[in-house]
Specification:
Layout (H helix, E strand, L loop, with lengths): L2 H18 L1 H9 L4 H22 L8 H21 L4 H8 L2 H13 L5 H18 L9 H23 L5 H22 L10 H24 L5 H7 L2 H14 L5 H17 L1
Helix pairs in contact: 1-10, 1-12, 2-5, 2-10, 3-9, 3-10, 4-8, 4-9, 5-8, 5-12, 6-7, 6-8, 6-13, 7-13, 9-10
């Protein structure tokens, strides 16, 4: 394995850990803050971290149009994820979001006409079986609105993986991440003001969640993803990011005391299996 490829894979493991920690952090934050306002604060912190990095590395401050467009997809993904977390657990959110990996070849076929292989089809089938167990849909009861919103988020993250793969080959990694953050910050501000959300200073755990999600899980993570995907294929990137819900489960247990019962745990394992097979 080439040294640069190894570095890219290590960076993706760190990325998975940082994103895994966001699920309990966001769950804590949305209990105290409105959704758009939380995203506004998160990306304000991210931009505060990006701008000095751009200055130190002599990158341009003007955002890249491709990054701004990609940021719109990121905004929608975070929006569905944050609203979903209001009505489901951090663990459920993490495992459902991980379905973005087997969805990558499906969307790749629909958008870019890349024919998915048998493994991809089998992976999404097993993943969907796991989803029915995790959410309780097998009992013919209604799936929670939180789980449904998070499933939509998974589609958006799959689209984002495909778009980052294309953009990262043409745009500097830091400039791409910075441009995405500007777009999400602007859209969050506009929507927060338009719906009349309450703007207040977050306190205690909510403040820590904002700082963590902004500095670590956004500024570091966006740069890490763009940097790593220039060295690792999107399929391998998706496989490594399979670790994200594993990290999320550990953090959710330690911070929120969340656990899964036997059937839900089986569903989670099937989702992970489906993600792995799809690669």
């Amino acid at each position: 394995m080439k040294k640069e490829t190894l570095k890219g894979r290590v960076m993706l493991v760190l990325l998975a850990a940082s994103w895994g920690g966001t699920f309990p952090a966001m769950k804590i934050a949305v209990l105290d803050l409105d959704a758009f306002f939380f995203l506004l604060l998160r990306f304000c912190v991210a931009l505060a971290a990006f701008i000095p990095l751009l200055a130190l590395t002599h990158k341009r401050i003007a955002p890249d149009p491709r990054g701004l467009g990609l940021g719109a997809v990121v905004f929608l993904g975070f929006l569905f994820q944050v609203f979903g977390l209001k009505y489901t657990t951090a663990i459920n959110s993490a495992f459902i979001t991980s379905l973005n990996t087997p969805l990558v070849p499906i969307l790749g076929f629909l958008i870019f006409h890349r024919k998915p292989g048998l493994r991809a089809v089998l992976g999404i089938a097993i993943g969907m079986l796991g989803l029915t167990l995790l959410t309780g849909a097998y009992e013919m009861k209604s799936v929670s609105i939180g789980d449904l919103l998070t499933f939509i988020c998974a589609f958006l993250w799959a689209l984002q993986i495909l778009l980052v793969d294309k953009a990262a080959k043409k745009v500097d990694a830091l400039e791409l991440a910075y441009s995405e953050a500007i777009s999400v910050f602007a859209l969050s501000t506009i929507f927060s003001l338009s719906v009349g959300e309450v703007w207040k200073t977050p306190g205690g755990d909510a403040a820590i969640a904002v700082i963590y999600t902004g500095a670590v899980a956004t500024a570091f993570a966006f740069y890490a993803q763009a940097w790593a995907q220039r060295r690792v294929s999107p399929e391998v990137a998706g496989l490594i990011l399979l670790l994200e819900p594993v990290f999320a489960s550990i953090f959710a247990f330690l911070t929120l005391g969340e656990t899964l019962d036997l059937i839900e745990a089986l569903g989670a394992v099937l989702i992970l299996l489906g993600v792995g097979i799809s690669e």
